[in-house]
Amino acid sequence: VLGGHASVALENARLYEAERNEAARAKESLEIANALLDFSREVAAADGLDEVLGLLVDLTSSMLGAERTSVWLQEAETGDLVATAVCGRDEDAERRLLEVRFSPDVAHDLLSTNDPFVLEASQVAQIEGAPDMAGMSLALAPLHLDSDRVGCIAAAAPAGHFEPSGKRMRLLAGIAHQAKLAIQNASSFQSLEDTFLSTVEALANALEA
């Protein structure tokens, strides 16, 4: 009889724990969805690619609790992966980071996956030209853009801050999706604006001639 009661009690406890975990996951998913909605609203209101990139690093830093964030994109001309926006560094460190360049081969090898991943300091040190990350871990969210270009959002924090399947990494995946759309839209708008201005300039020169 005692064994039967114990079995029922254990099963009830297991079901209660499963329901509590499911409720916690649902709450976490709702928090992530609301955070991404706010993120997309702010980025959508940005004027131009530079402002979009600036917002990306600032919002990513605050949403993930990361000390340093940056956005990296491949240059159209050289294919090199370069930092286009930086947050959380002093002026000297920011200037040095903006001078770092990674070859197209390194860029595509490093960012071949679709999902965000974490590199520890020892792994970052194996990448030629990478800045020193002593005591830090680096979360990277690849961005696959038009014309086979790649990029990424990089967030640095003390080791252990990013759990591989934790809330922050799920949030980073959502940020990367929104960032890709925002970057492509801003780039397309910039291209259209440049074409329009070039057309107007050509017409003005023709009229003057």
Give the helix/strand layout:
Elements: H1 2-44, H2 49-64, E1 68-74, E2 81-87, H3 91-98, E3 101-102, H4 104-110, E4 117-120, H5 121-124, E5 136-144, E6 150-158, H6 167-208
Antiparallel strand pairs: 1-2, 1-6, 2-3, 4-5, 5-6
Q: Major β-sheet, in short?
A: 6 strands, antiparallel
Q: For this entry, what is the oligomeric state of its chains?
A: single chain
**Count the helices. How many?**
6
Radius of gyration: 23 Å
Average predicted local confidence, pLDDT = 86
Shape: elongated
Spatial strand sequence of the major β-sheet: 3-2-1-6-5-4
Q: What do you see in this structure?
A:
Helices cover 57% and strands 18% of the residues. With 209 residues, it is of the alpha+beta class. A six-stranded antiparallel sheet has the order 3-2-1-6-5-4. A hairpin with a 5-residue loop joins strand 5 and strand 6. It is elongated. It starts with a helix and ends with a helix.
Keyword list:
6-stranded antiparallel sheet, alpha+beta, 209 residues, 6 helices
Short description:
The chain is an alpha+beta fold.
